[in-house]
Q: What sequence folds into this?
């Protein structure tokens, strides 16, 4: 006599149903956890991307204009004899 496995409808026992229900609840819990993790990652990545876009914009403007604001060492010369006070910064 030969035996073989076939795919067919199998009715679960009460213990098997409880076990599957626990497995279902755990899987739903894991899914929700992954969704929260994904949301946090997307938020962090979004902030990082926004920062990078801001830096690119600033660098683009600096390269295009050829200048930027900086703190620099300088000497101030005041001309007190002129009718209008002239200040030169070097």
A:
């Amino acid at each position: 006599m030969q035996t073989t496995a076939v795919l067919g409808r199998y009715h679960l026992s009460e213990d098997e149903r409880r076990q599957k229900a626990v497995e279902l609840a755990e899987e739903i819990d894991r899914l929700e956890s992954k969704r929260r993790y994904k949301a946090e990652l997307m938020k962090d990545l979004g902030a990082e991307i926004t920062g990078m876009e801001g830096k690119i914009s600033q660098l683009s403007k600096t390269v295009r204009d050829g200048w930027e604001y900086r703190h620099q060492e300088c000497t101030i010369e005041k001309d007190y004899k002129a009718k209008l006070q002239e200040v030169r910064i070097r």
Strands lie at 76-79, 86-89.
